[in-house]
């Protein structure tokens, strides 16, 4: 059957032109339109619903292969490739090779727990993100019939429900949802850059009998391909390939990888420094113990345990959990959907937000500012006549609805005043004349018709009976008003003898000039407050608009946003990339921008070490959306913009963007806090253990004790994904600076090591003061307890969460730190203590330990205050 050949047996090449679809030598590019429809067992009226359902079951959903969710076992296997996990596995195998089975089992348990938690978290996060993406699923307009005899009905369906043979409609801003053959088109052009790299739109039109292909398949004008987008015009096409059979799936999607964000690159850089240190630790410990203590391979399990103690193996779990939780809360509480989970990192780092003013700073409608006569004085009657024109043009020209300018005029006057006139005729607006005319009869003026004309100042004035000097003066007045940011309509009238024949544009001559109506953009009600909040958060706003420079500057002035010098497109063209980057740093408003200008400005800001977000909703915003670190669009944006964006807002509102940036900073800040606290504490413990291992006649802690201590700390650290930060750390972009971060870790790691060595001195003194207190079990117990207590202190004092005024409900970090402290104190007394080689200690040891911990807490607070004054306290700060 033809359907079987088209749907089941044909591959992508067959359906788009490189292979015979039915076993013959004839390519589909050589088929006529009728042959293609017969081959697909379809027609211009579209498919019947039952046949479409059968094809969907047979062909599968129209989904790219890379978009399908990975299974849980695949996630588990992928998590084993994490650098820290791979190092841990290697250390576990080394332990097993020397028959240190206890150490090997604990390491493998750590790896298993970490991989299970990470896989489960990623699985839950992907399910949540899939559910969120469904809220903004791209749809396609398809013609379907309930039955063969029924007429076709156009309706919107999700693109993944399309099947070969479906007839679809395409319009400006639509993504082409599948590979398709055009049946009809009107001025259609598409962007094929994702497929061919061409920046300019390509014209597409139906071809009844195609010529033999002279170029590639993408040069065929009658074929549109998935991954391209409609730049202009409209068309109707029949789907010839879906899902994995499309050209986009076969060639492009496999090679497309998004570059890692600045935050990800910083974390990876720190991670590899730690991994190198971890790999060096075991041989250094072995060599030092062999040289100073004459110990051999019996210290290998301890060396491995020390290396494991330096590993932040919960990092992937914390990252996934923190981001998934932030994205879920953002969607639930503020209706902001993060389509790409790592984009929440980038939102936290955004320090420049680029946007168009229309619909964001201003509403997409103007309001009347004032009406002026020819001398520039207030003239309410001018507004009255402009409204008469708007009302009767709407009534008599059979327009579907008034445009935004006419709506503003009608809102500014009393409707009863307009009904006093009798409307006779109208010559509607067109983009060539740039004006409209209404013909009315005034009360008491029998035998006379009044023509009321309004439109662009230059076009109306050129039709008025004015002397050259007067015309020049009025044009200069109009230019001054436009430069001040107002849109200007000129209004004129003429009295004509009554007649019965139609009025035409030829009658718009010898007019009497009445005056101007000045309109300004209505400000978005939340824009002013949102701009203030963004400024407090360290986010600079840049206006990238295609509008008049004066209009953009006026909107900024009205919102108390200082525009400075407005940079126009002609000046941008004269700047090199480096000059543009330098200029963009000081400029707030960019006017008369084309899509290419917007993308170039965003790229220049990125090269200047800024993390940029771009808010756009149209086809012309697509290059800038892709150029930005974070692409943002409202839910009502065109399909191609919504598909390319990383973040989708329920409404085009700056307040929602502020909520998104705050959520990104909360998640990124919690991840950075985890890294800061974990690594500084682990580094201090490793330094102390290495020193004690060289000074003591026995190992300072058994390998099993090191690993159990590490496991307890890892479990407590999961609380950082749920921490509640205080306002202060959220005021600047969360940019991780590796040099300051490593300096912070080193400083607080040394402080932690000093506390550990002070405890070591107390334990040594106990060995001389109390018989039996100097055995290894007592030393191990004392140091185990001290380590967990100091780690609990670090969790509380170095976090970026709330202070003492936290409210009645303690934060998760406080609960985790308290649990860690309880385990540290009680574990040596529990039945598990002797199993791990620990024993109880005398009471006076705990008094001395309390003194050490008090001094350590004072040192932590003092050191943190010093680091904060120098800008390193959080290791996350504003970009330069």
Commentary on this structure:
By secondary structure, the chain is an alpha/beta fold. The protein folds into four domains: 2-60 and 137-252, Calcium-transporting ATPase, cytoplasmic transduction domain A; 269-309 and 672-877, Up-down Bundle (Calcium-transporting ATPase, transmembrane domain), CATH 1.20.1110.10; 336-361 and 525-650, HAD superfamily/HAD-like (Rossmann fold, 3-Layer(aba) Sandwich), CATH 3.40.50.1000; 377-469 and 480-516, Calcium-transporting ATPase, cytoplasmic domain N (3-Layer(aba) Sandwich), CATH 3.40.1110.10. 49% of the residues lie in helices and 16% in strands. Strand 20 (612-615), helix 24 and strand 21 (630-634) form a beta-alpha-beta unit. Helix 7 (101-134) runs parallel beside helix 27 (703-717). The chain is elongated, with a radius of gyration of 36 Å. The model is unreliable at 1-27, 252-257, 802-807 and 872-880 (pLDDT under 50).
Protein traits:
880 residues; Calcium-transporting ATPase, cytoplasmic transduction domain A; Calcium-transporting ATPase, transmembrane domain; Rossmann fold; eight-stranded mixed β-sheet; 24 strands; elongated; disordered N terminus
The number of distinct β-strands equals 24
Summarize the amount of helix as a percent range: 40-55%
Query: What is the chains' assembly state?
Result: single chain
Mean pLDDT: 78
Instruction: Give the C-level CATH assignment of the largest domain.
Output: Mainly Alpha
Largest sheet: 8 strands, mixed
Tell me, what's the shape? elongated
State the helix count: 32
Radius of gyration: 36 Å
Number of domains: 4
CATH superfamily of the largest domain: Calcium-transporting ATPase, transmembrane domain
């Amino acid at each position: 059957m033809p359907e079987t050949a088209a749907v089941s047996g044909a591959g992508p090449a067959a359906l788009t032109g490189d292979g015979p679809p039915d076993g013959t030598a004839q390519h589909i590019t050589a088929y006529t339109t009728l042959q293609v429809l017969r081959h697909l067992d379809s027609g211009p009226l579209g498919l019947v619903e039952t046949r479409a359902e059968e094809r969907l079951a047979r062909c599968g959903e129209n989904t790219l292969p890379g978009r399908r969710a990975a299974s849980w076992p695949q996630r588990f296997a992928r998590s084993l490739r994490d650098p820290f996990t791979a190092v841990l596995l290697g250390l576990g195998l080394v332990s097993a090779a020397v028959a240190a089975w206890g150490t090997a089992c604990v390491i493998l348990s750590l790896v298993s727990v970490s991989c299970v938690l990470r896989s489960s978290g990623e699985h839950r996060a992907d399910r949540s993100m899939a559910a969120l993406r469904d809220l903004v699923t791209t749809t396609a307009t398809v013609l379907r019939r309930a039955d063969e005899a029924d007429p076709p009905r156009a309706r919107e369906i999700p693109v993944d429900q399309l099947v070969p043979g479906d007839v679809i409609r395409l319009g400006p801003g639509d993504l082409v949802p599948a590979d398709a053959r055009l049946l009809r088109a009107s001025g259609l052009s598409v962007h094929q850059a994702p497929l061919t790299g061409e920046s300019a739109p390509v014209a597409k039109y139906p071809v009844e009998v195609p010529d033999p292909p002279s170029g590639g398949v993408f040069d065929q004008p009658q074929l549109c391909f998935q991954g391209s987008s409609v730049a202009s015009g409209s068309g109707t096409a029949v789907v010839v390939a879906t899902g994995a059979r499309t050209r986009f799936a076969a060639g492009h999607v496999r090679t497309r990888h998004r570059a890692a964000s600045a935050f990800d690159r910083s974390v990876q850089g720190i991670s590899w420094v730690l991994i190198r240190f971890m790999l060096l630790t075991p041989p250094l410990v072995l060599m030092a113990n062999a040289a100073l203590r004459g110990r051999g391979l019996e210290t290998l399990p301890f060396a491995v345990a020390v290396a494991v103690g330096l590993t932040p193996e919960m990092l992937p779990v914390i990252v996934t959990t923190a981001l998934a939780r932030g994205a879920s809360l953002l969607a639930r509480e503020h209706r902001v959907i993060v389509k790409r989970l790592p984009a929440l990192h980038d939102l936290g780092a955004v320090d420049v937000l680029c946007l168009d003013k229309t619909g964001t700073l201003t509403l997409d409608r103007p309001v009347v500012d004032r009406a002026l006569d020819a001398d520039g004085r207030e003239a309410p009657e001018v507004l009255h006549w402009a409204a008469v024109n708007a009302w009767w043009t709407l009534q008599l020209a059979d327009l579907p609805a008034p445009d935004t300018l006419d709506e503003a005029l009608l809102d500014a006057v009393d409707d009863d005043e307009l009904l006093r006139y009798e409307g006779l005729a109208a010559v509607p607006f067109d983009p060539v004349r740039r004006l409209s005319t209404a013909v009315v009869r005034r009360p008491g003026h029998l035998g006379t018709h009044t023509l009321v004309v309004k439109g662009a100042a230059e076009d109306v004035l050129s039709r008025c009976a004015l002397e050259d000097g007067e015309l020049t003066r009025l044009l200069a007045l109009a230019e001054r008003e436009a430069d001040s940011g107002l849109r200007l309509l000129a209004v004129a009238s003429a009295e004509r003898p009554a007649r019965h024949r139609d009025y035409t544009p030829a009658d718009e001559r010898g007019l009497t000039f009445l005056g101007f109506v000045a309109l300004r953009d209505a400000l978005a009600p939340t824009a002013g407050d949102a701009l203030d909040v963004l400024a407090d958060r360290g986010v600079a706003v840049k206006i990238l608009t295609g509008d008049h420079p004066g209009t953009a500057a006026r909107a900024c002035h009205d919102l108390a946003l200082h525009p400075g010098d407005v940079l126009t497109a002609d000046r941008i063209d004269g700047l090199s990339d480096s000059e543009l980057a330098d200029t963009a740093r000081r400029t707030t408003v960019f006017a008369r921008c084309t899509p290419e200008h917007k993308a170039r400005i965003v790229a220049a800001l990125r090269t200047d070490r800024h993390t940029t977000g771009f808010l756009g909703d149209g086809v012309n915003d697509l290059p800038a959306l892709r150029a930005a670190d974070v692409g943002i669009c409202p839910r009502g944006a065109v399909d191609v913009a919504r598909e390319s964006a990383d973040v989708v807002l329920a409404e085009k509102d700056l307040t929602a963007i502020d909520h998104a940036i705050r959520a990104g900073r909360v998640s990124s800040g919690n991840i950075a806090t985890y890294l800061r606290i974990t690594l500084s504490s682990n580094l201090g413990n490793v330094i102390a253990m290495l020193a004690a291992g060289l000074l003591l006649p026995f190992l300072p802690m058994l390998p099993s004790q090191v690993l159990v201590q590490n496991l307890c700390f890892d479990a407590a650290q999961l609380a950082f994904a749920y921490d509640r930060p205080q306002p202060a750390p959220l005021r600047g972009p969360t940019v991780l600076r590796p040099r300051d971060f490593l300096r912070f870790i080193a400083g607080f790691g040394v402080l932690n090591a000093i506390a550990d060595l002070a405890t070591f001195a107390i334990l040594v003194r106990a060995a001389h003061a109390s018989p039996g207190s100097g055995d290894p079990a007592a030393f191990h117990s004392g140091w185990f307890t001290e380590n967990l207590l100091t780690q609990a202190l670090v969790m509380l004092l170095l976090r970026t969460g709330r202070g003492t005024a936290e409210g009645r409900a303690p934060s998760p970090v406080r609960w985790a730190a308290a649990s860690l402290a309880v385990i540290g104190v009680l574990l040596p007394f529990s039945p598990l203590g002797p199993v791990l080689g620990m024993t109880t200690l005398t009471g006076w040891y705990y008094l001395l330990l309390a003194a050490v911990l008090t001094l350590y807490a004072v040192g932590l607070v003092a050191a943190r205050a010093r680091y904060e004054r120098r800008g390193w306290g959080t290791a996350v700060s504003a970009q330069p």
